[in-house]
Write a structure and sequence with these properties.
The complex is a heterodimer of chains A (148) and B (131). With 148 residues, chain A is of the alpha+beta class. Chain A is built from 4 helices and 5 strands. A 5-stranded antiparallel sheet of chain A has the order 1-3-4-5-2, with helices on one face. By secondary structure, chain B is α+β, with helices and mostly antiparallel strands. In chain B, strands 1, 2, 3, 4, 5 and 6 form a 6-stranded antiparallel sheet that branches. The chains are: A alpha+beta (148), B alpha+beta (131). The interface between A and B is large, with 37 and 34 residues. Strand 2 (84-93) of chain A pairs antiparallel with strand 2 of chain B.
């Protein structure tokens, strides 16, 4: 079944604030093998000009993937998550995420297309602080593989 | 212009995928269960695309010299990275080539990532502002 085209252009209410913890950044950095001091040591991070330990560039996906459940788990969209693979991913940064940030996500659907029996869903997530400061914009294209 | 940065090799094992699943919250079973992965037509357990993107991101930030130097970063996942259940796992090799440096001091990098000689990313690029 094709995805519901009426989702294109829709936006969702901001998600509940996500509190970025120092230990979560350290855990994520360890998981990707990023050993640089600014990901682990608050004093070293401050010496480099960050407010606290800084997150690696792909860290925001931890927050945006959870936030996008608002869209992908809506039965009306018609997405079968067991057939979904990740197509594209893009980040445009205003500034890096640092420990202590309280972030909210506003999700939108940019595009829904079909090609070769596969369906493509592009979501955009504007990640800002609770005060409204832009942090990063995240685009994800998910591919629902055709049933063959 | 046209500078090619030193290629970097990253080893990826099943343990890495388990650790990444926990840290990222992405518990899709195709990244830890051969049964589920083969059931959906994959050769076996594959790495999270975002894990591969994170490894390439390490190469980019290392080159740029700082985590906050990355202005934009995008990839297309063109082929899965199968990770066999062995001590050695597999390897992802990352290269970067300087495409252009803009008047605003931004450097555009074209990135590649290969596994077993096959490109696993396409349209991969980063824009960085070197410190």
């Amino acid at each position: 079944m094709p995805l519901d085209q009426s989702f294109v252009g829709r936006s969702w209410p901001a998600t509940e604030p996500y509190q970025v913890g120092r230990e979560k950044i350290r855990e994520f950095a360890r998981a990707i093998g990023a050993t640089d001091v600014e990901y682990h040591d608050p004093a070293a991070a401050r010496a480099l000009g960050y407010a606290d330990v800084v997150a690696p560039p792909t860290f925001p996906v931890v927050i945006t993937m959870a936030a996008s459940r608002q869209i992908v788990e809506d039965p009306a969209l018609g997405l079968d998550y067991s057939r979904v693979v990740h197509g594209d991913q893009r980040f445009a940064y205003s500034r890096p995420v640092v420990a202590g940030d309280e972030l909210v996500c506003v999700n939108s659907v940019d595009e829904i297309t079909s090609r070769g029996g596969h369906d493509f869903l592009t979501t955009r997530t504007e990640v800002t602080t609770v005060a409204g400061e832009p942090v990063v914009t995240v685009w994800s294209k998910l591919v629902q593989r055709g049933e063959h | 212009m046209g500078d090619t940065l030193e290629p970097q090799t990253f080893r990826v094992t099943r343990a890495d995928l388990v650790r990444y699943a926990g840290a990222s919250g992405d518990f899709n079973p195709i990244h830890w269960s051969d049964r589920v992965a083969t059931g959906v037509g994959l050769p076996g357990v594959i790495a999270h695309g975002m894990f591969t993107m994170a490894l390439v991101g390490r190469a980019v930030t290392a080159w740029a010299g700082a985590a906050d130097a990355v202005v934009e970063y995008s990839v297309r996942f063109s082929r899965p990275v199968p990770v066999p259940d062995t001590d050695e796992g597999t390897e992802v090799v990352v290269t970067a080539t300087v495409k252009e440096t803009t008047d605003e001091g931004l450097t555009k990098l074209v990135l590649t990532a290969t596994c077993q000689g096959e490109k696993v990313l396409s349209l991969a690029q980063a824009t960085v502002r070197k410190r």
